[in-house]
Amino acid sequence: MYRSMKTKIMVLAFVSICLLGTTAGAACGDSNKLGALFHRQSWQGANSFQPGSLLTIAEDHDPIVGMWHVTFTAQGNEVGPPDGVPIDNALVIWHSDGTELMNSARPPQDGNFCMGVWKKTGHNKYKLNHFAWLGNDTANAPGGIGNPAGPARIVANITLSPNGKHYTGTFSLDAYDTLGNPVVHIVGTIAATRVTLDTTVPDLL
């Protein structure tokens, strides 16, 4: 009895291996048959799971992520621009990977594209460490291409509105010459409005 049962188990195991081998062999190089065996993952939202999927994909975008119209205004400078003076007017994109990109209203030769990194510091609160790299200072050149200008660093602390459509905060801007010597220090306020599919040019001016 024991020997008969053992024989039956061995036969079943052999048949199963053969069937699996046949299926795998028939599917090799045939994308249609492979597709019948492995189903593509479909997105159903964060923390969701689809039975039969090979992978579970989850995305959790922070509410700061997106495109913004941002203005920088001088405020509280003992030396430098008085309160209310516009410092910059920019379009800014906050990426989900913790990086940020700004298209400044500065002349292109002055280095109007600059980049930063950000981190969430609390509920709807963020810190940004932003760098404008090298460019040319047009102030000393009537022809438009001036002397080499050094980098600048902007550190901002902002608060996102509860509805996620605006943010406000403060910034400090430190500019340097090409040797790394500080030449300008400005502090002020930030105000931003989210750019959407319905935003028009007059909305940005």
Question: Which structural traits does this protein have?
Answer:
205 residues, two-stranded antiparallel sheet, alpha+beta, 3 helices, 10 strands, globular, eight-stranded antiparallel β-barrel, 40% strand
Descriptive overview:
- This protein has 205 residues and is of the alpha+beta class.
- The chain has three helices and ten strands.
- Strands 1-2-3-4-5-8-9-10 form an eight-stranded antiparallel barrel. A two-stranded antiparallel sheet has the order 6-7.
- Strand 9 (166-176) and strand 10 form a beta hairpin.
- The protein is globular.
- Mean pLDDT is 77; it is low at 11-59.
Mean of residue pLDDT values: 77
Give the oligomeric state: single chain
Major sheet attributes: 8 strands, antiparallel, barrel
State the helix count. Answer: 3
Ends distance: 91 Å
Strand content: 35-45%
Gyration radius (Cα, Å) is 29 Å
Helix content: 10-25%
The ordered string of helix (H) and strand (E) elements is HHEEEEEEEEEEH
Number of strands: 10
